[in-house]
Design a protein that fits this description.
The complex is a heterodimer of chains A (about 240) and B (about 450).
Chain A lengths: L1 E7 L10 H12 L4 E7 L12 E4 L4 H13 L2 H10 L4 E4 L1 H5 L3 E3 L6 E2 L6 E18 L2 E15 L5 E7 L9 E6 L2 E4 L5 H4 L1 H16 L11 H14 L1
Parallel strand pairs in A: 1-2, 1-3, 3-4, 4-11, 5-7
Antiparallel strand pairs in A: 5-6, 7-8, 7-9, 9-10, 10-11
Helix pairs in contact in A: 1-6
Chain B lengths: L1 H18 L8 H9 L3 H6 L4 E6 L4 H14 L4 E3 L7 H10 L1 H5 L5 E6 L3 H9 L3 E4 L7 H4 L2 H14 L5 E5 L3 H4 L8 E7 L20 E9 L3 E9 L6 E8 L4 H16 L4 H7 L9 E6 L9 E5 L4 H11 L8 E5 L29 E5 L3 H10 L7 E3 L3 H9 L6 E5 L1 H13 L11
Parallel strand pairs in B: 1-3, 1-4, 2-3, 4-5, 5-6, 6-7, 11-15, 12-13, 12-15, 13-14
Antiparallel strand pairs in B: 7-8, 8-9, 10-11
The chains are: A alpha/beta (about 240), B alpha/beta (about 450).
């Protein structure tokens, strides 16, 4: 089997160790004998349907974010990502990437950056910096990470939240929701990196990718997750 | 009167904290003295004939220490802030401590390392003769913010500094090089020929520009150091000079620290040949590529090395430097803490290229330690280390003992900042190193 990871704007949006998510997806697939290709999709690249089996979209700085927002619209990548997610292709987005997949992001200065409206959410820049370790209760169990954002994201429908914040700020520091999940697409504020310490989520993304690609149910071979789970547990006992 | 009161209070707190061993006495005295006289830094530093300010993400401590070394060889009396105290209160503490020497004109040169944020507050108060910008990398984004905004703030601060201040920039870092346009006075560049810093540079092309201070024909000699040709132009004459340099510090990044210190030295009128000769007698700061003896016995001498790691760029440079020098029986001890001084966010370990350490092909024994030992062990696993060869021990003292027991070759210790301080205390207890507040 083979899986292609589409790294969205990795050259512009790769802040806060989000590369750890790519490393984790790649290794966990390879350890099971699945071939992995990581393809970068930035402003210079063209994206077609069926190019990607798992999307990853990391965080970025304001300046880069506006560049990416306009490319998502003008290059047609935004439209393709939406269509692919509709047919079940999994996606993980963190922070800046998450914000651009909502309806819009309103920065401190300048006009609204349009998102691709994949998630029923919008984000507004605030003067609060929401920084610290975060623990969230989700359908995948507890997820742990580190958040660092000033944008506040509001879900138009709470049904779509990824989970409930146990420790930390989450989407906006007020309504206790964190992240968003629509079909197999996830948006969240968890760096850390997220996937290395939350292997259940990493495997879920791989499983979904293979199921969509090969059109059958896939059961991934279990791995020895000693270190992963110790790191996960340590974060919960220290911060949760 | 206000100044004197502030100085007296600061000195009193320094004495108390030293007597009761509350800390190194390097921040609290300044903090309280500043409450009485907020302009203390400006008033006291103005009494010093020359001041040099050093900022950037990596290399501040080594550059400051090397410049101080050059100055001492020239016979100058130098004061500088202590490692890790690179905020305004740290500078104030040093000034307060040396008040009587400063007032009686016994201090010739102040060397101040300032962190990326403190620079904007403190540099305009000091009005330094020379400012050095070393580099800017991602480091503790929770504290400094994004690289773009760090550079923007520096640029703004530079527009407020006036001649006779001179600026020295690392020309190989696109971000520091971009500061040239922000300053009206004299700007000079330093760099290494045919080398580009892998870092935050968005713009990829290195401009074909002549540097005033340039290292050429670089040859790295493992952990012993490097050899290169230094080309520099004199201020007074139109000539270009060439000098061979033997630097007793390993890795390309130390060449930049040297170039920065050397460039500042020439601006202060030091003799270039004397500076280069004196490198033979330079000893590194604690934890910066420092070598020590784990076993005092001359017969079975075992060496240990400490390399501070604190951000992706710095850590990767350390990995690059030690990897070609590792031997099959060497061991590695990593310690990752997440205290405020380390950065609470440990995401950065995923941007550092631990994979580089796997290029040896050896099955090295590794100990992972620190408050985030499990995150670290996990990172090592994903970098290709065999989990069976990774020992996890959160407690650094126990981890150090584990790494040392049965060691056949050398031990490489790579700690984050507060783990390094802890390591200093552990080594001091077993008689290997002095306590940090006794340094210098």
């Amino acid at each position: 089997m083979k899986v292609t990871i589409g790294y969205l704007y990795g050259d512009l949006m790769n802040i806060y160790g989000d590369t750890g998510n790519i490393i984790t997806l790649k290794k966990r697939a390879e350890w099971r004998g699945i071939n992995v290709v990581v393809k970068n999709f930035s402003t210079a690249n063209i994206m077609k349907k069926n190019d990607v089996d798992i999307f990853f979209f990391g965080g970025g700085q304001d300046q880069q974010q506006s560049l990416v927002a306009s490319d998502l619209a003008s290059s047609g990548k935004g439209k393709i990502i939406k269509q692919e997610v509709e047919r079940g292709v999994p996606l993980l987005s963190v922070c800046g990437g998450y914000q651009l997949l909502g309806e819009y992001y309103k920065p401190h200065r300048g006009p609204k950056l349009p998102g691709i409206s994949l998630f029923p959410a919008y984000t507004v820049a605030s003067d609060d910096r929401m920084i610290g370790n975060i623990v969230v209760e989700t359908q995948f169990g507890k997820l742990v990470g580190f958040e660092n954002h000033s944008g506040k994201t509001y879900l138009k429908d709470g049904e779509y939240s990824l989970g409930i914040v146990i420790k930390g700020f989450g989407n906006n520091g007020a309504d206790t929701t964190e992240g968003c999940i629509y079909k197999n697409a996830i948006g969240c504020y968890m760096h850390g990196s997220l996937l290395p310490k939350n292997p259940i989520l990493a495997d879920w993304l791989i499983k979904k990718a293979l199921e969509v690609k090969y059109g059958k149910e896939i059961n991934l071979e279990p791995l020895d997750d000693d270190f992963e789970l110790l790191a996960h547990q340590q974060a919960i006992s220290r911060f949760g | 009167m206000k100044t004197l009161a502030a100085v007296i209070l600061g000195k009193l707190i320094a004495t108390i904290s030293k007597t009761f061993k509350i800390g190194g006495g390097s921040a609290a005295p300044g903090l309280y003295a500043l409450k009485i006289d907020p302009d203390l830094v400006g008033k006291l530093s103005r009494k010093i004939p020359q001041n040099v300010v050093i900022t950037g993400t990596n290399g501040k401590t080594t550059t400051a220490r090397m410049l101080a070394h050059f100055a001492k060889i020239e016979g100058l009396k130098v004061i500088k802030n202590h490692t890790g105290s690179n905020l305004e209160r740290g500078v104030t503490s040093t000034l307060v401590n040396s008040y009587s020497h400063i007032s009686s004109g016994k201090v010739d040169l102040g060397i101040w390392e300032l962190d990326e944020a403190a620079f904007n507050i403190v540099a305009p108060k000091i009005k330094p003769g020379v400012v050095l910008f070393l580099n800017v990398f991602r480091d503790q984004l929770d504290r400094y913010g994004e690289v773009d905004s760090v550079v923007k703030r520096w640029c703004k601060t530079l527009t407020t500094l006036k001649s006779p201040t001179q600026i020295l920039l690392n020309g190989d870092d696109a971000n520091t090089r971009s500061l040239k346009k922000c300053f009206k006075g004299k700007v000079q560049l330093f760099g290494v020929k045919d080398y580009k810093i892998v870092g935050e540079a968005i713009e990829q092309q290195k401009e074909q520009e002549n540097y005033e201070f340039e290292a050429k024909n670089v040859k790295l000699h493992g952990l012993k150091g490097s050899y290169f040709h230094l080309q520099y132009s004199s201020l007074r004459e139109a000539n270009t000079f060439h000098l061979p340099v033997t630097l007793p510090l390993p890795g390309i990044y130390h060449i930049y620290d040297f170039l920065a210190a050397f460039a500042a030295g020439t601006r202060l009128g030091f003799s270039p040949t004397t500076m280069i000769k004196s490198l033979k007698h330079y000893s590194p700061a604690f934890g910066r590529m420092e070598k020590f003896s784990l076993q005092p016995s001359r017969l079975h001498r075992k060496d240990g090395f400490i390399f501070l790691i604190k951000n992706p760029a710095g850590a990767t440079q350390v990995f690059e430097t030690i990897t070609p020098n590792l031997k099959p029986n060497d061991r590695l001890l990593f310690a990752l803490n997440d205290n405020i001084a380390d950065g609470r966010d440990v995401s950065w370990i995923w941007d550092a290229q631990w994979e580089r350490l796997q290029e040896t092909g050896y099955r090295l024994q590794v100990v992972a330690s620190g408050t985030r030992a499990y995150d670290l062990a996990n990172r090592l696993k994903y970098a290709g280390f065999d989990p069976k060869l990774i020992n996890i021990e959160q407690d650094l003292k126990k981890a150090f003992r584990q790494a040392k027991d049965g060691l056949k070759a050398r031990l490489f210790i790579l700690p984050t900042y507060t783990a390094m301080l802890e390591l200093q205390r552990i080594l001091a207890k077993i008689g290997i190193k002095r306590h940090y507040w006794e340094e210098e």
